[in-house]
Task: structure prediction
Amino acid sequence: MPGLFEEVKIGGIRLSNRSVRSATYENRCDADGKVTEEMIRFYRELARGGIGLIVTGNAMVHPWGLTAPNALGIYSDDHLPGLARLAEVIHDAGGRTVVQISHGGRQTVPDLIGGREAVAPSAVYSRAMKYTPKEMTGKEIREVIEAFVAAAERAQKAGFDGVQLHCAHGYLLSNFLSPFSNTRTDEYGGTTEKRTRIILEIYDRIRARCGKDFPILLKLNSEEGLKNGLDLEEAAGVMKLLDGKAFAAIEISGGIYETGLSTRPKIKARENEAYFLANAERLKKETKIPLILVGGIRSQERIGEILASGTVEMVSMSRPFIREPGLIQRWQEGDLTPARCISCNLCMSKVFEGPVKCYQEEKRKVQSERRDR
Ligand SMILES: Cc1cc2nc3c(=O)[nH]c(=O)nc-3n(C[C@H](O)[C@H](O)[C@H](O)COP(=O)(O)O)c2cc1C
Ligand code: SF4
Result:
């Protein structure tokens, strides 16, 4: 069975090892979603750290789908020069990269989107946002489908190795998959097939416009942790439908803002690691598409066991790389101490305050400087 440092090919992209940097919102672009020097520096360091595949933070396919300030934009050709530079910098440092394309759905509010109403499949109140979005019209759904396709075309033009459709964590495409947030009775709601339809339409149109070889990945919720929401068996039904398409890989995650399952705190022991593994094992039964596992993976030892089980082809991490962009290189050089991230979630709770960073690492550096003085 393959280990972390064995090469792998997914959707035609050859990757030097089986690690993925899971999409992580950076808060490093300008107010129009354009790439800044700070963003370039951040990704250059990450790419030099030897990660197999870097997924960018969620890039907005539509200005009214913005979920957070200074998030990466991919909704206009004006974003192209910055995106092209970002892809080039990552490639020059030896990395491979796909853009995560996303729309906020019911997890944004008018304050973030110029006072406009947030849109979602259905007008279902969000406890997290304290807000009820507007139900999308058929025309708005068609516009959003086109926005995802145009975003994928821009990613391809900019030189990225592919795109990842964000269908997790309570953003728009996962809102469609969920029986809780999608109560529509038209062709986009009512059954698993109809709830999945928007994703399959986006996939088909990206294929038609970007060609049969363009890698399309997907990040999927395996459960929302919500009464009447998407549960594991519902996700298995979705997976069966996705299996009919040539996705390069599907990353298994879970949770929405209201349940917070995606970024569990206190990953202190091996038993706490890889908290969606059992879900991935269930979903694996429905598909031949390579799977990627995310959620609380912290040690090379656990990664070895996960890859040996054959359930997933790759393992993905977010918080560990915020603290240690060079984690993979450190392990490769023989220091096998688990990731130093203690899963305190300060990087997440304070992410609107400025560029994403590790507050524990910052504290450690200040203390060690004081000691050295
Ligand atoms: C600060 C921060 C930003 C995140 N941004 C995104 C994002 O843009 N897209 C996404 O799919 N997940 C995002 N996530 C979730 C991670 O990709 C990942 O699924 C989750 O943190 C669990 O993995 P981990 O235990 O390795 O951190 C974010 C997580 C954090 C901590
Ligand atoms: S602040 Fe640092 S230690 Fe805490 S979860 Fe984020 S990366 Fe990990």
